[in-house]
């Protein structure tokens, strides 16, 4: 799906400023914030959609500037898309993605997980759902052995009660030397 | 469904200049593997990803480790079991959106080769086949189906939502109890030919419906059944069932009973009403309403005086009755009200649809001295 973007120039009245965890400021069109339930609720509560209200910068302590840049890119692309419907089958089950989405999410897994966390924090359901779907598409359809490899699950001595094949033990402990995913980045230095 | 092509995984690998955050085990070269440490994400995220998996992949994942098994378990799945002669299949619905149909192909009899397989339109080799093959050597359908249901109900949080059985199709060798579906929400029995007593008894004794039991097949009048098997909320009998008597109906534990194409006449219906009026209501608390379609229309109904039936009084109850599982309100303006022996509970008799339909419904709230009786508000 693609939408034609009408040409509108943002004015100071219809913008808010958000501040990432590393202190970088971003000017965000109010129209874009409609896709984020967190920001939309905040704007509604503080009445930032009114021109006579002073708009203080909104600190987003859980989101880095790189993530924010990426999210703004997503919001701008989906600016004129219809409102997200949770139970819309078109969005929920298909493993077919727009070319733009494929390119947008052509990023390392750790960045994708952090983007997923940011999408969850800002409550952007279309982005959250798309990342989950793209991750699922990279796992489903593979054999059990391939899934074991992809998810990095080690072999256990026990046999599976259902299949008789060996049960695998998760390798999620720190012993395997894998670095942790930073889902909550540390606050910016003061 | 279009699968994400495997070659894409190569293209999204981190550039070689990056330090790999998730190094592959020494046995697996990094260049050929893309690691996704999914199980280290918060549970909310994992469940969201898993919600896009199909059922076979979920079973596959559950088999890999204890942790992955625990993660897969809460994925709610509804099962619909259909037994229509040779065509026996499971309909599986996950999270109210992904519906899959698994068909069971009959294996060759008198061979040790296991040929009973699950077939799915877009997938030839299914992981769950391995599980079934390890459990049953039978080429018959029921053991295969039963093992599949057992696997699904044990590995995932499964609810057998509906069982559809077409009668006259059950072979004598395979008994319905072999399906091992002890309980389901809705049990639908359909068929054209008169059902054998043993077949009906086999189904009712082995599968208990909690919400709806629909018997839409002609049955023998000699059929005898323990009324305790009827505990569902709604019972519907759509074909001639001579074995259903007013006494049997009254002993059933159903909330709403609907009988179409019945042999009942007004006398039978009044007999039921008498039983209700004189009974100990504590033993029949669940009962809400009885609906019977007469074979011949009742033109001038006569209600015995002893019942104390009275015309509708606006102060005692509402005009409309809302039946369980039916969104349509029933206008009880012309109904006759009866007060139970406890002097508190009010019920209404209504003969409507030009004398073709009989309705007897108990109002949910009890009579009080100050206000009227409850029931449904005007739609």
Automatic annotation (TrEMBL), chain A:
Stretches the record annotates as Disordered: 166-190
Statement: the UniProt record of this protein carries the keyword Transmembrane helix: no
Pfam families, A to Z: Skp1, Skp1_POZ
Database matches in InterPro entries: SKP1, SKP1-like, SKP1-like_dim_sf, SKP1/BTB/POZ_sf, Skp1_comp_dimer, Skp1_comp_POZ
Keywords tagged on the record: Ubl conjugation pathway
Domain SKP1 component dimerisation, residue spans: 126-157
Domain named SKP1 component POZ: residues: 15-79
GO annotation (BP), single: ubiquitin-dependent protein catabolic process
Entry-linked SMART domains: Skp1
Highest rank taxon of the organism: Eukaryota
Biased composition (Low complexity): 169-184
Family note: Belongs to the SKP1 family.
Protein name (Swiss-Prot/TrEMBL): Skp1-related protein
Organism, as annotated: Caenorhabditis remanei (Caenorhabditis vulgaris)
UniProtKB/TrEMBL annotation, chain B:
Ranges for domain F-box: 35-81
Signal peptide: none
Pfam family, one: F-box
Source organism, top-level taxon: Eukaryota
PROSITE patterns: FBOX
Name of the protein in its database record: F-box domain-containing protein
Source organism of this protein record: Caenorhabditis remanei (Caenorhabditis vulgaris)
